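Dear Dr. L.,

I hope this message finds you well. Following up on our conversation about the binding site, I have prepared a predicted three-dimensional model of the protein together with glutathione. For your records, I am including the exact sequence and ligand specification that went into the calculation, followed by the structure tokens. Please feel free to forward this to your student if that is useful.
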Amino acid sequence: MGVNETAKLALLLRSISSNTICSGFISQSAISFKVALLRRKQMTMQLYELSSKNDCRFSPYCWRTRLALKHKQLTYEIIHIRFSDKAAVAFYSQERFPVLRDGDKVISDSWNIALYLESNYPNKPNLFNGHAGRSLTNFLNGWVDQILHPSLIPIIIADILNNVDPIYENYFIESRMARFGKHPKEMQNRNTANMQNFENAARALRASLKNKPFLTGDRPAYADYIVFGAFVWYTLLAILTY
Ligand SMILES: N[C@@H](CCC(=O)N[C@@H](CS)C(=O)NCC(=O)O)C(=O)O
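The resulting structure of the complex is given below.
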């Protein structure tokens, strides 16, 4: 990341001050117990979010949803789920997060959640800036999932393993070996080829951000949150590890 991107990331991180990113880094400010209770009563939605050792939240997909909810100015409660913590989500049969519960509706997959929020809360600030914006954002969603994230995995996968709760280490190793065919520690290599691959993917983003603060212009929208998720994933793991 260049200096500009790092500054933008820091700005976004600061603007999310009301929620914990990682205990020890940006902790929830001193909200009194009464205020916290009052807020809890008003909350209708629950965001099930993946957390790991030291309560750190680096899931890129969960960040997309958390920022979408903030953008929509909706109140929500965060429920932390640790890797393979199935009992907490017995109401829901899948194993991937984020999951959003809104009254009796349960929505999974960050993209589906964004669509749900946009169509069910149309009077709140717009996530996509219209139909064309939604289409382009959908393209970006796929590009990040299929190009940017895969370019990051070989340089962070062992760092993720080092940051999952010890009791979930075996689950993480087995599930990732089934997915990638290699042990995370064998797979991670910050060699020139892998770093260059990530750099190549990031170059397209850098070019787009050259003359404007956000991918979507002067203000951030869902496209920016998708990209933010990837960089916060990388950055938090780097802070924790190096
Ligand atoms: N396409 C899904 C992907 C969600 C996903 O892969 N979430 C990961 C966290 S980054 C997860 O829940 N992993 C749990 C596990 O592997 O057991 C989305 O956009 O929400």
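In brief: Residues 130-163 form the longest helix (34 residues).

With kind regards,
A. P.
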